[in-house]
UniProtKB/TrEMBL annotation:
Pathway in which the depicted protein is active: Cofactor biosynthesis; adenosylcobalamin biosynthesis
Name by which UniProt lists this protein: Precorrin-4 C11-methyltransferase protein
PROSITE patterns in UniProt: SUMT_1
Keyword Ligase: no
SUPFAM superfamilies: Tetrapyrrole methylase
Length: 255
């Protein structure tokens, strides 16, 4: 018996990994975070699998299902949105499994921040612009953010910043970001990336709030702030014909 924490990806059912889809098809007990994981992802599930939407369940109720699976010798697919390592609330479940001597394995998935960059057709790391991506969020009732990770201090780096789960706090977020990023810094909102009702809005920090209705972006929204979104005229040396490395000789002498 084993529990598999499976990253379902950003929503499109064909963006789950091959391993994740295979395990969904093998496990007979499935727990999934229905508030974030679209039911379309469950098309990979075994037709006879029992499924439980954990959106309305507390931890003890989920642990009770793990105990039951242990008693019945059933493998469990625990399906989380995106990648389980990022805001997945998996640590407390893993702790409970260790106490029960139940083995578990994590199957990574496509995160919503990379999916959002993909639908924007953007690269978040550009030479001489930024080589750093910051993943963060703002405090919520369930998970406060440490003060040392406040937005103004993170924004001071001027790097690409991907902010999860903050759509309903956009006015304060923009104000905090403007303490460090220039007003003309490009930003993008992506809601439900890769899903049928996906939408996006590209703007700048100074214009964003005047162009949108905040209430329409309250849920399932990724905010990306990055000078790289401006498509600066920079290129990596990796494919420069004058750049030599162990797999390719340079075309020019002395390089």
């Amino acid at each position: 018996m084993k529990v598999y924490f499976i990253g379902a990806g950003p929503g499109a059912p064909d963006l789950i990994t091959l391993r994740g889809a295979r395990l969904l098809g093998e496990c007979r007990l499935i727990l999934y975070a229905g508030s974030l994981v679209p039911e379309a992802v469950l098309e990979h599930a075994h037709p006879e699998a029992e499924t439980f939407n954990t959106a309305g369940m507390h931890l003890d109720e989920q642990v009770a299902l793990y105990r039951r699976a242990q008693a019945e010798g059933l493998n469990v697919a625990r399906v989380h949105s995106g990648d389980p390592a990022i805001y997945g609330a998996t640590a407390e479940q893993m702790r409970a499994l260790r106490e029960l001597n139940i083995p578990y394995e994590v199957v990574p998935g496509v995160s919503s921040f990379t999916a959002s960059a993909a639908v924007l057709g953007a690269e978040l790391t550009r030479p001489n612009v930024t080589q750093t991506v910051i993943l963060t969020r703002v405090s919520g009732r369930a998970s406060p953010v440490p003060e040392r990770e406040n937005l103004p201090s993170l924004a001071a780096h001027g790097a690409s910043l991907c902010l999860f789960l903050g759509g309903n706090q956009l006015p304060q977020i923009v104000a905090d970001l403007l303490t460090a990023y220039p007003p003309e810094t490009p930003v993008a909102l992506v809601q439900r990336a890769t899903q049928p009702d996906e939408r996006q809005h590209v703007s700048t920090l100074e214009r964003l709030l005047s162009e949108i209705r905040v209430s329409e972006w309250a849920l399932t929204t990724m905010l990306i702030v990055s000078p790289a979104l401006a498509d600066p005229d920079t290129s990596s040396r990796l494919y420069d014909p004058a750049y030599a490395h162990r797999f390719r000789r340079a075309e020019k002498e002395g390089v």
